[in-house]
Amino acid sequence: MDDRELRVSIDHESKIRDQIAALTGKLKDVLDRPETGPSLPMLKEIEEEEGTKKKPPKKKKSLKDGPKRTISLQLPPEIFEKIQQDELRDDMEANASLDEFMASQGLDAYTNLLKRRGFNTVNDLANLQEGDIDFKIKPVHRSRLLWVAGTQKGFMEEDGKEVPKTEKVKPTTPDPEDKPKPKPVRKTAAGAARRPGPGQRKPAPGKKPPPGAKRPAPSKPQPRPRPGAKPAPTKKPTSKATAPPPAAAEPPKPTPKPSKAEAPVEPDAPPPAPVEPQVAEPVEELVDLPPEVEGEDEYLPEPQHAEVEDPGLHGDILEEDNPHMHKMADDYEDDYPIIENGVPGVDLPPQPENITRLVFGSGPFGITVYGTGNGLVVTHVEPEGSGAELRVEVGDHVVELNGVEVPPSISDREFVEQLMSKSRPVVLGFTRNGKDFATANAELAGGVTAPPEFEEPEIPEPYTVGGISMDEIDPDKNLADLFPSAGLEMYLDALKEMGAEKMEDLAYLRRSDLMDLDIDIAPADKKKLLELGLVAFLTKEGLADCVAYIRSVGVDMVDDLVYLKQSDVALMDLKQEYKDRLMDVLGRDS
């Protein structure tokens, strides 16, 4: 290669190096410079286009997914709390008004009561405190309402919102729901809806009075004969058919009673005048006797027994004879001795005149109480418990605990907690119709006053749940056979897609499942479905006989069981085996 060719080659190589250096500098400038080119909007547009694409449909949940997806009892507390909070937030967003929200929660019975106290919006619930709930409410509903209030306040603080100020109002008049409901007028001696006295014939087992039949009044109760006492003459009219019938139709004339020295009138001799007041005349005034009544047995009218509205909860109390109707005033002397001392471990003040004190030793108390807000009332007495042995009756008020006054405003839960904290024996003070037992019984037996009235708690009928009779509910029964009678047939297909075809499948039904259905559910129907889920769950757990008791304290669905407290279970008039089983299901010690 000559010099000329070598020089050309060097120049070419130098140019190449310059080009490489220039390109390297440009590349370095590009790398050091922030990205501000037109490519960013293009990327944003691509992201927006991807965001507009529809998400794949959510997979249908099956009610049978997971071994234990039922309720909080089978979930860790923190997980269930998070689930409940998410469901509550969704519910609040879907139901803006207080009426809609309370209905979705199954608490619509308390909406107007809250509004009367100044809580008019969902946000106002964040200011709700336990002292604001001064109206009648079931225990579980109270716990749920307070949880909703606390959670709502937490939501607002978490979202950085200010909790609104609520102008709370204390009602000066009774709530409409607390006004006494009209009850059948108790008739006096002229009409008499009182229990039959001794000697009157009871109706045959299973026999019910025809609809609309007039209720006959029993005659005045007779005193029970004391052991060894001479039997008193009966007041039944003579059963001989030869008795002159016109005497019964004539008005009674005042005649002096024969002295003890006078000999009794011979049966064969026609009586010149009534020996003693006859009860045939007043009975004829009160009861229309059948025309064929002639003999002694037909003289006694068959009493018409009042039907018990809720036998599953309160027992068939009215089907038992009222023991007060079998005693006269003098039979109650010393029946209830004064208890002021002599009870181990209990220091008692002097016993008030209008209170009867009873000592409860070991064993079950056997009574169910209910806090009405104006007194603690006995709503049921277990036949084999201590309460029955001490002759406590439905309608009695508990006014003392170990000599200390029980406030009328105390709730049944608070009373049970106080009672359980005491060691045995304990002394409970009772009143009956505002008086001590002996006075009240004597007045009742003497016809001075009517049996005590008391306001029973509003408890759902135990035989109808979710619009379906409990007699018809069977775990193996198809929902297609049950739902039409309750007006729920429109939800059969949606539930079938979730794996619920039989009654037992509803044991895993939760509120969130109903929210996931591709169908709008009316609040009333939602409540029915959740109630049926509760029945299915309790049946699966062997607690079908406890449905009425559990619903009576405000448990409307399976998840509500988490709010049950030990004192709530103690208030239920259940056998101990059921209480133990229920506490086991709740995951707590009995």
From TrEMBL:
<dbReference type="InterPro" id="IPR001478">
    <property type="entry name" value="PDZ"/>
</dbReference>
<feature type="compositionally biased region" description="Low complexity">
    <location>
        <begin position="231"/>
        <end position="242"/>
    </location>
</feature>
<dbReference type="InterPro" id="IPR013761">
    <property type="entry name" value="SAM/pointed_sf"/>
</dbReference>
<feature type="compositionally biased region" description="Pro residues">
    <location>
        <begin position="243"/>
        <end position="257"/>
    </location>
</feature>
<feature type="compositionally biased region" description="Basic and acidic residues">
    <location>
        <begin position="155"/>
        <end position="181"/>
    </location>
</feature>
<protein>
    <recommendedName>
        <fullName>PDZ domain-containing protein</fullName>
    </recommendedName>
</protein>
<feature type="domain" description="PDZ">
    <location>
        <begin position="354"/>
        <end position="434"/>
    </location>
</feature>
<feature type="region of interest" description="Disordered">
    <location>
        <begin position="29"/>
        <end position="71"/>
    </location>
</feature>
<dbReference type="Pfam" id="PF00595">
    <property type="entry name" value="PDZ"/>
</dbReference>
<dbReference type="InterPro" id="IPR036034">
    <property type="entry name" value="PDZ_sf"/>
</dbReference>
<feature type="compositionally biased region" description="Low complexity">
    <location>
        <begin position="187"/>
        <end position="203"/>
    </location>
</feature>
<feature type="region of interest" description="Disordered">
    <location>
        <begin position="150"/>
        <end position="283"/>
    </location>
</feature>
<feature type="compositionally biased region" description="Pro residues">
    <location>
        <begin position="206"/>
        <end position="230"/>
    </location>
</feature>
